[in-house]
């Protein structure tokens, strides 16, 4: 490595904040030695704080209706080919019951921005989960809402909230979203969530259309300053029924590099090895864990709806039963020397 790269990695390894230009330099480097060194260091840092433990979250994709028309998303409202569904409260509670028996102690309720699920309905669902499973964490990933809505859901028993900014660059945001969506509102939502007291997760797509190294550096700068509890990143993957259907996918290599950088930016971060990583490469999630990630999110949704929650093409784990999926994750993590643990896995940053 040249002197500049060595100096930047030393700063990162010692917990010093990087400048935008330094992130750009790291991202633009194709130096294999650099990537290997950062991955090894990220794994060491993660083990220091989490040992070889990997936390599992039970993902419940409860609706694929969405009022938004994001240009990259397979469940965008303009996709007339999507087969829409909504889970009932009883459906969701049955998913939780099955997951609890399998050892899950975090449930992630994820869906499109579906106005059908108003605050009263969501409050009731969350309250019921909290009463039935008092030792579990409840995570929401249901998009942009008002401060009062977030507060009601928090008071009902939700602990965490995932809201990916997708890009921390206003001009790039406008390339990915229709005019009625606002970058400023997305950022306001993230700040509101943090002020209410949620464990907050943000994140972005790696290799999304028109994305540059400078765009990603903006995301890393934002994460460095915002200090979320969780960050979800994964390679961008196209969907045939979107305006970006002919764009190129993000790459495994760049995603792994960014996972390592994120681990070194914040050693105590909760960092998933996402389904999209496993979709783009058969061993993608295992590689993500080895690069510094420490969370896996198996799917607890009913098998008859999993193929309908298709944010991107060729999504994996759309047909496995929950128990089969968990056994598969346990086996794969053990094969690379990591231990799946069954506890809430709260952020050490709270």
Description of the structure:
The chain is an alpha/beta fold and 350 residues long. The chain has one domain (32-341): Alpha-Beta Barrel (TIM Barrel), CATH 3.20.20. It contains 14 helices and 9 strands. The chain has helices at 3-13, 20-28, 32-50, 89-101, 119-132, 147-156, 170-176, 183-196, 213-226, 252-265, 275-280, 284-290, 303-306, 322-335; strands at 53-56, 58-63, 106-111, 137-141, 160-162, 199-206, 230-235, 295-296, 339-341. The chain has a 6-stranded parallel β-sheet. Strands 8-1-9 form a 3-stranded parallel β-sheet. Helix 5 runs parallel beside helix 6 and helix 6 packs parallel to helix 8. The longest helix is centred in the first third of the chain and has 19 residues, at 32-50. The mean pLDDT is 96.
Q: Tell me, what is the CATH class?
A: Alpha Beta
The main β sheet shows up as: 6 strands, parallel
**DSSP helical segment count:** 14
**Helix content range of the residues, please?**
40-55%
Sequence of strands across the biggest β-sheet: 2-3-4-5-6-7
Radius of gyration equals 19 Å
